[in-house]
Amino acid sequence: MNTFRAIVVRDMRLALRNSGGTMWVWLFYLLTITLFPLAVGPESETLSQISGGVIWVAALLAALLSLDRLFQADHEDGSLELLALAPIPLELVVLAKVMAHWITTGLPLAILAPLMGMLLSMHPSGFPVLVLALALGTPVLSLIGAIGAALTVGVRRGGVLLSLLVVPLYVPTLIFGTLAVDSAIGELTSRPHLMLLTAVLLGSVTLAPWAAAAALRLNLE
Amino acid sequence: MNFTGRNLTCVRGGRIVFEGLDFDVAEGTSLLLRGPNGSGKSSLLRMAAGFLAPEDGTFGWSNDVPDRGIHSQHIAYVGHLDAVKSAFSVAENLQFWIRIGGGEESASLNALEAMGIGHLADLPAGFLSAGQRRRLNLARLAASTAPLWLLDEPTVSLDEEAVAQLMQLLRHHISSGGLAMIATHTDLPLKPTPLLML
């Protein structure tokens, strides 16, 4: 357990210290969203209709942007080999790194979401569900992304390949997440969508670390 | 406790690097791996560490094949890369690896002193020279409790003083019953050691 915590703490410190590595992700999220009022026009009616989807897509792209370094930095400097020799299974090493990734990218995106909602004149009744849906959905983005990041760890400029691999797998999360927010704004129940999101999250937690660890082992050979 | 390899075959990229290789490392001894470039010294060490699956053959501790999880705790591996994070200070880098291995963090300063970089403990590791980075990587050994050291050309970019410090660590490790496999091209000032020619 100590080993697990040590990896989480180390990755969080690296993310926050590396000349604001994750700060760029938050900024990218903000910038993408501010482009929409400029492009779509300032009519609050149109904007609020698409706000849920826009925030989800921006969060998804921001997460994607930060994924290619998840294992690559450790692979390049040899840390990954030493982590593979840690006294915990590689699956748990992956889970620790994913957790640190989520805390430094996904979670802040969820917390910032109401602010983004205001920029898009989203109806405030959608805010709680928006934050909840993102809090359930962003870990899925990190978990599934970890599989892609592990598969492309040895590939130079693997970012594009990573996106191609991972984006199709993000679709269910995106659909349920957006539906949850839209139904909350439309004063419908968002419960079923949130439950489906939770199901996707539980499925990813149990499967993604194994898949990612298997891919990393191949890359260590 | 002896570490043995039996009938090992290594295939890289469809080419047989070595086959039918046997070796024994007894408690309190080290084994030097010698051979030209590409003869499979690094591959053998990576196999022993469990990164690379042998095409054929087995590794074992006193002929008892351990499972991967237990085996990895018996190993301290130093490869070609130094696993140094530029954003962390020298001490933080080492402390992380000690923590991962379940050791005492307080051992870090002594370990850095043992490799002659104690005075750099607070310096961001990004400012280290190649030799100093290697010293930092090797300092992990001083804090390690693993019985088997796998060293892949550990003296690369080290100066004479650092080589002497490394030999000091090695001698202490071996005299206290440790094992070591060392791939090297240079003559290390160790007392007569078995050689494995690849």
Task: Offer a concise description of the structure.
With 221 residues, chain A is an all-alpha fold.
Provide an overview of this structure:
The complex is a heterodimer of chains A (221) and B (198). Chain A has helices at 2-17, 21-40, 44-67, 69-76, 79-84, 90-119, 127-151, 159-185, 191-220. The mean pLDDT of chain A is 92. In chain A, helix 7 runs parallel beside helix 9. Chain A contains nine helices and no strands. Chain A is mainly alpha-helical. Chain A is elongated and about 55 Å long. Chain B is of the alpha/beta class. Chain B folds into two domains: 1-74 and 146-198, Rossmann fold (3-Layer(aba) Sandwich); 85-145, no CATH class. Helix content of chain B is 32%, strand content 25%. In chain B, the strands form two sheets. Chain B has a five-stranded parallel beta sheet with strand order 5-6-7-3-8, with helices on both faces. The longest helix of chain B is centred in the last third of the chain and has 16 residues, at 160-175. The radius of gyration of chain B is 17 Å and the shape is globular. The mean pLDDT of chain B is 89. The chains are: A mainly alpha (221), B alpha/beta (198). The A-B interface holds A 2-3, 6-7, 10, 13-14, 17-18, 76-79, 81-87, 89, 220-221 and B 49-53, 69, 72-73, 75, 77, 79-85, 87-88, 96-97, 99-102.
